[in-house]
Amino acid sequence: MFAIRNSLKLVRDAALAVAAGLIFAVSALAQTDPLPSWNDTAPKAAIVSFVEKVTKEGSPDFVPESERIAVFDNDGTLWVEHPMYVQLAFALDRVKAEAPSHPEWKDTQPFKAVLESDMKALAAAGEKGLVELIMATHAGMTSDEFQKIVSEWIATARDPKFKKPYTELVYQPMLELLAYLRANGFKTFIVSGGGIEFVRPWAEKVYGIPPEQVVGSSIKTQFEMPDGTPTLFRLPQVDFIDDKAGKPVGINAHIGRRPIAAFGNSDGDLEMLQWTTMTGGTARFGMLIHHTDAEREYAYDRATEFGRLDKALDAAALNKWTVVDMKADWKQIH
Amino acid sequence: MFAIRNSLKLVRDAALAVAAGLIFAVSALAQTDPLPSWNDTAPKAAIVSFVEKVTKEGSPDFVPESERIAVFDNDGTLWVEHPMYVQLAFALDRVKAEAPSHPEWKDTQPFKAVLESDMKALAAAGEKGLVELIMATHAGMTSDEFQKIVSEWIATARDPKFKKPYTELVYQPMLELLAYLRANGFKTFIVSGGGIEFVRPWAEKVYGIPPEQVVGSSIKTQFEMPDGTPTLFRLPQVDFIDDKAGKPVGINAHIGRRPIAAFGNSDGDLEMLQWTTMTGGTARFGMLIHHTDAEREYAYDRATEFGRLDKALDAAALNKWTVVDMKADWKQIH
């Protein structure tokens, strides 16, 4: 009896020793910097302080895990958006690839402009021209076919300045931020003005964000059973524009609860940040990425042609959103 | 040196003993029946067999966790839908509650019929009348206000036959099935013909399904900032009908990948089951709940007034979907 009790004690002590070892290893891991590509400036401190207070049980700012929703704009927030949106580069490439089946395009704007790489004529075609390009290249096939086209393009296309695949032009500090939030029980969503079906095929691999956590603009689809095979056919009709005041609408439609943190970089993200942060009382976090690094990436804001960070920058000061100065706050960009 | 090595060995042996104990405890747990309210008939065997083959690594039917998406209709599949959809009972109660602010309703159909409990006149108002009732009771307030109204109603309303809150009239076998799938790495979604914002306020508590995993019909919302406070205002305009051919569209819009298992109970679920299962090659699962139990619940199918399980029942035979005979296959209903 004594022998058994003694053995049990031995086992218990040894188990405790193992447990202590594990706890030590875990603490050591926790102490490695989760945001190594961020300089030790105010934005990093603000992120860490927010995450610590909403995850600390018993704190007045504690938020249960199920409500830790963080939303991220994509273009210019998670990856490069200059000299043009990546999805526009995709559309232009698709026009070129499909041109042999559309002989009429060489005499019809805006297609003519694309085929002749006449960016001035393309710009003159305006938003109407843009919608025509999108419909011609994003509709008229099944959702499975479109997914395949996007996947193949994103694997081979190269950014004109960096000569790299676009998926390598995602921002390393933001990848670390996504991982840090998820490690702290957050569910991370993309809320993009771009096409939902353009982002989904690669978002899981690149950002660790599954298709069901991508919100974006969409065209209408229709269920059909040609030859008895169920398909979703992509129609040339706008369904939803997930930009500006559309972003809170898209967030509500897809997520169904208000995020507690939002990350953007332009006026297109203004309403998303307002919806997320201006709720009174509880702890919320808003952040704008300010592109200030002409050397390592691009510098643009309210003043430039691409300058859509105007009203949002005013609102940031008013609402105490954190503004990231890319040049000063990011140790590494890609 | 020898002493240290010996101590280390002791610790290792003890740790192994602890681990063995844990494994034993886990196996014992795994052997308790995860579906106790299902009789040991074909449907239960089919579910277990499907789950085992898609979760067994190395099996030709193995599906990685991220792709284990299961979709569930709500009305008649997860909870009672007789004698009328619960959401219609909500709309009728709301008309009565709001009537004092709408004196014109007592002379206007379909509101007059509701206030006089004249179900024949209500039926005569048809789908047009139904849409009018939905718009009058579901729009004209913010999304936060609507959520509060639904939450208060669902906490107090009682089913006319069972005299219980509707949330107690969910099907126990289906709750077990949801939990069993989640324990096996599935992500479970509701794909309801009913209103997305009607289901979300209570789905997490009742089914363990968070708002972001609810797909449903919707009305349009608009972002507004009255008095500087961001709100989403509910407009009296249909946005999307998540029924029949709309279900695959809704699934694609919200989930962005094809489910591997779908559960329904009516012709409204036909296309969802087709979209899920008719893909060739890989392992898929389709199930229809057939209401056959007049004593414990209701019995209805193709022949009854509420009989919308007609085309789907034919398709079940064709596509080898599992049909649950409620009376024979469910040990307990609520």
From TrEMBL, chains A, B:
- Quick check: keyword Magnesium in the entry? yes
According to the record, the signal peptide region is 1-30
Please give the superkingdom of this protein's source. Answer: Bacteria
The record's section on InterPro entries has: HAD-like_SerB, HAD-like_sf, HAD_sf
Upper taxonomic lineage: Bacteria, Pseudomonadati, Pseudomonadota, Alphaproteobacteria, Hyphomicrobiales
SUPFAM superfamilies in alphabetical order: HAD-like
Which UniProt keywords are listed?
Hydrolase, Magnesium, Metal-binding, Signal
Q: Mind listing the GO molecular function terms for this protein?
A: hydrolase activity; metal ion binding
Pfam families xref list: HAD (PF12710)
Coiled-coil residue windows:
none
The protein here is known as Nonspecific acid phosphatase
